[in-house]
Amino acid sequence: MPYRRLPNTDQARVRALKAAVEKGDLYSVRDLAISLKTLFEARNFLQRFEAAQIYYTQCYDNQAKASRKHQANVKTARLYISHFIQVLNLAVLRDEIKTSHKNMYGLPEANVVPDLLSEAALVEWGKKIIEGEQQRTAQGGIPIYNPTIARVKVHYDIFLDSYERQKNLQALTNRSLEELASMRGRADELILDIWNQVETKYQDVTPNEVRLDKCRDYGLIYYYRSSEKVKEENDMLIDTHSHLFLEEFSEDLPQVMERARKAGVSHIFMPNIDSMTIEPMLSVCADYPDLCYPMIGLHPTSVNETYERELAIVRERLSAPNNFVAIGEIGLDLYWDKTFLNEQLFVLEKQIEWALEYNFPIVIHSREAFDYIYKVMKTYKNTPLTGIFHSFTGTPDEAAKLLEFEGFMLGINGVVTFKKSTLPDTLRTVPLERIVLETDSPYLTPVPNRGKRNESANVRDTFLKIAEIYQMNPEYVAQVTTENALKVFVIRK
User: Range with the lowest mean pLDDT among 93-97, 215-219, 295-299?
Assistant: First the structure.
């Protein structure tokens, strides 16, 4: 039998309460599965709880948006302070400034640059350097140029202002989170009361699946053990690449998940995009632990001036206890421009190194960058590295080159169903044992639903097209592609 579990995220709590409250607007009193008293309590509480959640989200978003600009200010301030110290040290070496004068700056006599990695260090050393230069020149010393202390001070003041603003925003976010957290206990009490009343109301309904559907209508979410998964057909499918944590699914995620189960989907593997999408992804995985599995990585389209900070977050997440199954999606994307090509290459190789360090597979995104990807991957050919070349749409020659990497699969999605796609011809040169299925939801919806939002249930359309291309029994194709996926991912419970 399936089992229920109370929501463990705020978004899920809101969805559960909303589902019940909305029934009060649709049903008469006699048709309601919950008491009027419970309905009124849930409606009143939901308004306050949802407002608290929205306020916290706003605070967090404001902090995150300001953080991007702040990190640019941090980088600039660090550059100018570090450069000034280096020029100062050089002037000392040239006997243009006395070694003893470094005491004015709080610097040691050795010609080194202090550690400026932390923001606290920047606050400290920026102040010391500015005051030291002012003190030395006031005593008749020749000012340092390129950079001048005036330019250092301008960028230091900009950093200091954003540093204080960021601390205030963080404090505001923390207070709003504390307020939200204080309401979770009452939310859980209400949800439990609602669910108990609903199940009591429908306890005599048969068959069981009809009873469960009536309960689900009030927001109850049921989980299935591996031997109990709901299937429309016997075929068990795996969606190796889906972004069900994005806003496109915020209104009907439970229904999306149920459709996936009924389509025979047993696993959904989800890569984040950047630091802002880590928590939404983990939240969905926490709500559907028997179905959804998280990856972690920095997407190439998110590589910009703040890539160092983003990489640091990935590293921090990897080094802490986690349930990640892969590092992804990572790679190169040169579709729009090549401005950050060098940074994308650095980020890709750094994350590959972490994959080897933590024994994780990788999921590679490549867009208008095949030659670069192939060149990078060749250096890891004789390593234990495994993974998936996500959203493969290339030529037979490109497929052959990628198949050189024995631990890697080709991820095939809805593109294979497109009328003008050349991918079917390419796949006829690829062994089925090297293919995994994916959706890339909400993107790349397969025929016959092309033009609509994609979701994990639609992996069945891709699967059926693959069976047609290979002219093989669908059950066999499902079995092989599922085995292929489970060979790649490391599920750690």
Answer: 215-219
User: In 7-142, which residue ranges form alpha helices assigned H by DSSP?
Assistant: 10-26, 36-93, 119-138
Q: What confidence tens digit (pLDDT) does each residue in 11-21 have?
A: 788 888 999 99
Strands 435-437 and 265-270: unpaired
Integer CA distances (angstroms), 63 to 10, 159, 473, in order: 19, 15, 53
Residue with tokens 């199954």: 325
Residue 476, classed as helix, strand or coil, is helix
Q: Is 91 helix (H, G, I), strand (E, B) or coil?
A: helix
- 157's enclosing H/E stretch is helix 149-181
Please report, for residues 76, 206, 487, the alpha-carbon distance to residue 225 in angstroms, rounded to integers and kept in the order given: 53, 21, 21
Helix and strand numbers, DSSP H then E, in the chain: 15, 10
On whether the 225-488 domain is CATH 3.20.20.140, my answer is yes
Domain assignments of the chain as residue spans, ordered by start = 1-223, 225-488
Phi/psi of residue 491, nearest 5 degrees = -85, 115
> Minimum mean pLDDT among 162-166, 224-228, 293-297: which range?
224-228
Q: State how far the alpha carbon of 354 is from the alpha carbons of 145, 300, 379, 380, 434, in Å.
A: 41, 16, 15, 13, 24
pTM of the model: 0.62
Question: In sequence order, what DSSP letters do the residues of 173-210 get, joined into one string?
Answer: HHHHHHHHHTTHHHHHHHHHHHHHHHHHHTTT-SSHHH
Name, in order, each residue with C-beta under 8 angstroms of 235's C-beta and a sequence gap of 6 or more: 264, 460, 463, 474, 475, 478
Give pLDDT, residue 208. 84
pLDDT digits (tens, 9 = 90+) for 413-439: 999 999 999 999 999 999 999 999 999
